[in-house]
Amino acid sequence: xxxxxxxxxxxxxxxxxxxxxxxxxxxxxxxxxxxxxxxxxxxxxxxxxxxxxxxxxxxxxxxxxxxxxxxxxxxxxxxxxxxxxxxxxxxxxxxxxxxxxxxxxxxxxxxxxxxxxxxxxxxxxxxxxxxxxxxxxxxxxxxxxxxxxxxxxxxxxxxxxxxxxxxxxxxxxxxxxxxxxxxxxxxxxxxxxxxxxxxxxxxxxxxxxxxxxxxxxxxxxxxxxxxxxxxxxxxxxxxxxxxxxxxxxxxxxxxxxxxxxxxxxxxxxxxxxxxxxxxxxxxxxxxxxxxxxxxxxxxxxxxxxxxxxxxxxxxxxxxxxxxxxxxxxxxxxxxxxxxxxxxxxxxxxxxxx
Length: 353
Hints:
Blueprint: H1 2-29, H2 40-44, H3 49-65, H4 69-81, H5 83-86, E1 90-91, E2 105-111, H6 122-133, E3 138-142, E4 147-148, E5 151-152, H7 153-157, E6 163-166, E7 172-175, E8 179-186, E9 193-201, E10 204-212, H8 218-230, H9 238-267, E11 273-278, H10 286-292, E12 296-297, H11 298-302, E13 305-306, E14 319-323, E15 327-334, E16 345-351
Parallel strand pairs: 2-3, 10-11
Antiparallel strand pairs: 1-13, 2-16, 3-7, 4-5, 6-7, 8-9, 9-10, 11-14, 12-14, 15-16
Helix pairs in contact: 1-3, 1-4, 3-4, 8-9, 9-10
């Protein structure tokens, strides 16, 4: 009887955990529907979704092995609800190798991390060579620096990209098509910013947004915690957790306000909108949903494989290209270049026939 009681208790605890996983996962799926300010705990569950999905998959296998098919319905239904989210990170299929032979405009978005601060201009020139190889028509750079030592990078780019527009801080848009209008958008109390340009492509006007939203705050929080630890200050336990949580939530709330500002600006556009940039946020977050609006996520439309754009230890997707529904995506992919802590994202877009 003692062994049977232990087995029943263990099964009951596994059932409770499975139920809680289902609740947390479903709440996380809708965490991006609410403003982070005042709902930080719910909004933060979005960032745990990959782990929650893996845990649900483990419990599905567990209940199937135990032949408890009725209990297996909980993780199964939860995983089915996660399919749209999984589609923002993984797509089945292969890249269209003939995409560049098709009509359309080739876009690129790349956080170049100020070309790693090198002074010879080599990295800027190498990135330009990559843009040529990828047959890019319009590129949006974030964390751009126009000077490498005594060399001006824009002088090197103007032969291939004869048109350019600079943002107020660290942004630039290079284009092979005429830029006929532009606007710089500053965010309060931050160095991050956004801009848009309108380009004339064969007498059709398109508005391209170049966006660099507030950073996550995690790296700065860890850096501060490390400095305190070196001074002998105890940063273990709650202090470190609070530093990371506080830094991230501040960044999350700041990004949400910036995304709201840009979403309102986009609604005023009479031209088709394409959004490129480093959002510093993950799919299904409030920022992602707000920036996406009624537009199309290019990766979900025509990408393939596992999509992540941050080169660091965290394999996360934080760089995006979206477009209006009146346009059609032909190809979407990243290149694993080593010049920055981000990977560049490329997309070919055409007008629907």
